[in-house]
């Protein structure tokens, strides 16, 4: 099992916790954007280079594509070399304390680079600046940071960078809330086959442990027309897969008088898009019609990430998750009945305040009952300003560590079993690129989101192929391309 998304331990290429924005792909999108880059800032930074490091969830990764798009409109070019960078920007995550500490460590580590390049600008954006305590800490302890902006101010970045180039003090602009969205900003996408598409912003659920409603503001849905037109444009550019992004995608459209199931069907009709994924589905509001839409829409992948967080009703209640263990198990049963080959993955938190050994046992039992294909497991981290930060009966760090290890041991067995079940099967995969861990093989993915490594030419990247699974370990499958064998037999 992998630990948290923001934890570098045991990370696999399935889910990069930290992405360094890479140069090279000429995919600057020509989307018009409402805010528009001020004429005099266009290309004003030609010859300068930026290094953008992204932490956190897919939403942040996608924000980074917009940030990169704007920087490139300003004339900046991407680099992965810190010593060559004129701007180092950290797009941060606030969901757990260790993610935040890592960023503060990085801000300290890169400080000496300013002596090598006095023009170097250091920036912090994303979810961390949305916390007042982080703003204060930057001012008091990290004054060498030049520019700070939040999740609602991305479109303001060019002007803030311009101000920071001429300022002695940290330029800081963090809006708490915004009705604006950035759908129209240019996006320097890091991939040419798969694209993220925002469908919903913010979160209204207020789970008691979670900082996201405070860093991302209230839930807002993007209109179906705007989403479908972006997806059509992506299809026209050759993209084959889209992932619809939101914190509770099954609440999509409730503010617009529509529903997520309608959106899935509409996106599913876009010609050229072979795969539609979505994340994240809170188990709340997972309607029968949504199950139906997933089952009947051919391009919608049979993978549902359905975070359960805990198997104990007492803990779920204190987490304010709004469902019970029984509701969750029933939902899983309904989904599997209608979509028998579905892959289910989840998120789990151990050591929530007041979690007893018995509560934890209930989580272990639920994990065994459901037999998830995979799970992200997290040790509870108190976030200032959230209700749970004030809850009594904290679980000790030592106990949390032990529970995390016990949970991982149980889930690992199910992850391996789910992989092993694939051996001998022929499955359709989309080839995503060269493997990040082994440059000699290609990384492809099944509809159920399993990573398959195959040998083959680079021209396969972006194609869908039939592969036979020949072996499996916990995180990866090895496959052989069936079409390749056919080519060899016919000599073509
Ligand atoms: N909107 C998604 C979750 C987004 S945050 C949902 O509700 O399903 C991603 C995951 O981080 C959560 O599912 C949760 O498991 C974990 N997480 C959030 N806050 C946390 C905290 N304070 N401590 C530990 N893990 C946390
Ligand atoms: Fe956080 Fe809960 Fe919203 Fe998910 S649904 S982002 S866990 S508050
Ligand atoms: Fe982290 Fe912000 Fe995403 S807190 S999980 S980057 S919404």
UniProtKB/TrEMBL annotation:
Q: How does it assemble?
A: Monomer.
- Main location group: cytoplasm
Q: Which CDD domains match?
A: Radical_SAM
- Where's the Radical SAM core domain? 189-417
Q: Which enzyme class, named as a word?
A: transferase
According to UniProt, the reaction catalysed is: N(6)-dimethylallyladenosine(37) in tRNA + (sulfur carrier)-SH + AH2 + 2 S-adenosyl-L-methionine = 2-methylsulfanyl-N(6)-dimethylallyladenosine(37) in tRNA + (sulfur carrier)-H + 5'-deoxyadenosine + L-methionine + A + S-adenosyl-L-homocysteine + 2 H(+)
Residue limits of the TRAM domain? 420-483
Tell me where on the tree of life, at the top rank, the source sits. Bacteria
* Family named by the database record: Belongs to the methylthiotransferase family. MiaB subfamily.
Mind telling me what this protein is named? tRNA-2-methylthio-N(6)-dimethylallyladenosine synthase
Supply the PROSITE patterns for this chain: MTTASE_N, MTTASE_RADICAL, RADICAL_SAM, TRAM
